[in-house]
Amino acid sequence: MKTQDPRAKTPDATIDASCRLPLLVLFNGAALWLVLGLALSVIASLTFHKPEIFACCPMLSYGHAQAAANDLLVYGFCVPAALGVMLWIFARLSQTELVLSPLPFIAAHLWHLGVLVGLVAILTGNTSGFAWLEFPRASAMLLGVAFVLIAISAVATFGQREERELYPSHWFLLAALLWFPWIYSTANLLLVTNWPVRGVAQSIVHWWFTNNFIFVWLALVGLGVVFYLLPKLTGQPLRSKFYALFAFWTLMFFGTWAGIPAGAPVPAWLPTLSQFASMMLVIPILAVAIVLVKTLRGAKLFCGGSTYGYIRLGGLMFLPSAVLLVAAACPQYSRVLEFTWFGAAQVQLHILGFGTIVLLGAINEIVPLIMDKPLPFKKFVPWQFFLSVVGVALFVIPLLIAGVQQGHSNFEPNAGKFWLKLSMGGLVLLLLGSLLLLTNLFLMTLKWKIALVKTVAAAVVAPLENSEVKS
Amino acid sequence: MKSGFSIFLAILLTLGGSWIGFVVAPTMQLGTAKLTTALVTGDTWPQQRTGEATLGQQIYRANGCVACHTMQLRQDGVSFEVVLTSAGKINPTAVSNLISTLTLTGLNKEAADIAADKISAVGGKTETHLTATGADISNYHAVRRSVAADYLYDAPVQLGSLRAGPDLANIGARQPVAAVHLQHLYAPSSVTAKSAMPSYKFLFEVRKQINGVASPDALNLPAEFATAAGYEVVPKPEAKQLVAYLLSLRADAPLYEAPFTPATTKP
Lengths: 471, 267
Prior knowledge:
The complex is a heterodimer. Helices cover about 75% and strands about 0% of the residues of chain A. Chain A is mainly α. Chain A has a domain at about 10-165. Among the domains of chain B are: about 35-70 and about 170-250, Cytochrome Bc1 Complex, Chain D, domain 2 (Orthogonal Bundle); about 75-135, no CATH class. Chain B is about 35% helix and about 10% strand. Chain B has nine helices and six strands. The longest helix of chain B is centred in the N-terminal third of the chain and has 27 residues, at about 5-30. The interface between A and B is large, with 78 and 70 residues.
């Protein structure tokens, strides 16, 4: 990976500083939504312990809290965090300052406003009714505009690059920038309108969107970030570029067709094609595994909770997550596992174990650089790492077990109840971890703002230089 | 592949493929779907919901019921049963002797045809009945799988992906009594012991009885769930609409793509 080239025109510190404002807004908001999202998840899972707990409080009942929590995790945390990381990676790879930097700064505010509108809408019952797409039209429009504005800045920065040769991360992240507006606008225009497509065509568009957003988009972003940061942190080149690009093309070619469940009440060609594509995902999984193993083999870095640890573990988590997706699509397993907690566990593993951990690592790596200061509590980084790892394990593994029990007992109503209750422990740990990130980011921003005010104040009250004083 | 534009084009084509395959094509195939006709009765299908049930669908959506309930029944296959309608006049004893040697239930199509041929060869008259089979069918007392036509009037279509609770595709036929649904929404464990379903008390109103007389709408709750004496639990309009919607959920008409022999035509 590139180290600072003495011939490069722009020093890294200048590039990082140019990203400061938009990234701060994106990351601070993302951290806040992550905390709120996980808190809502905990609230939702209280229902497993005491079903009638929110009998008189519709806002926090399971159907509301769970949907809000899921959307805050992806729209609140994953997307803005990913956008911030992407902007920085594009600026660094292009060796140029962020182009049109006011654009993402404004857009970041629009994005967070959109998430707020969506959150209020879900809690008050104005959901669209489609999982992962619950935000109403007003919110979706804000999100769409904000994303496009940020993408414009990212692509403009990409266009300014000094080095014309493309790096694998470029491919993954450019595809992610193109794919999100495409699927998000398609899904919203066809589903969240007064004239949705007719009948079960809604469900097909919805499955397509969900798979392409949660699985494909998050994979593009996560792998793009891992393939940039891993070589950078280890000082080893990515081994190899060929496998990374092979993974990219096969992931896009097959991954985008997965997601239609086997037993769906739709024309048979749809689930059949989708199952075939899911099986073929074994190819990109193998390619990613080869890249990770070969790149990591040369690295002799201590990882105990460093940002390298995040990126390494997050990257590796793609493998079990994708393998579970393929397994759940196998006909003999899907007969048992379809409609159980197994599918939910796979999705949560993908979001929390893979996407979130990679993005957390990237945020912890990038924030000290753009602020040109270490984090206020450096210890929080490894603490959060361990909380997240144990939290994801304690959350996802019980859900997987609950799913298998549910499937084998043929949906016996109380199957897997113990495991569902246990899974809440994992969520609490994740919530604690996210509070550490929030503390770090907010304190850092606060200190920076105070310093800024002090600088301005100092400039205002400073005595005028002699030359400016009229005699 | 060196220039940004050619990459953009390649990515566009790859992603566009899935968009055409899973958005454009299904919309063209199913987006113009029209009412269909049920087999046997010739009724149109699906039946239009009442206004109350249509409103109830929005209550279902707003409360995120789809988080725990699916609305799609799967089916493994069909099984055939050969039923003797008349032993005929030629040789009834031969027919009854033959029948005692044959397996007539749980057959596949070929076996059913062979059995029917054998019986008609000795003068008996038969009917072949068709039954859907599968775990969902027996679990949820359903008569057939869900098909695309069932959802024509739904907006939004909420098939769901998780069965934390039971499937609801056929709930209107499985439990046609509104009062049971209302009581279940108010206090799930009063209907199903140890139910994991949250209570939807906010869809109900607890109010004082007028002159000590219960209103006709008041829930008839078991003692341990009942309110204080002199008070009653009355469903709000939202609860009634939701129940009207639940009662409208039926997958019980035989269709061309999901045939079965309805119980009423069975002798």
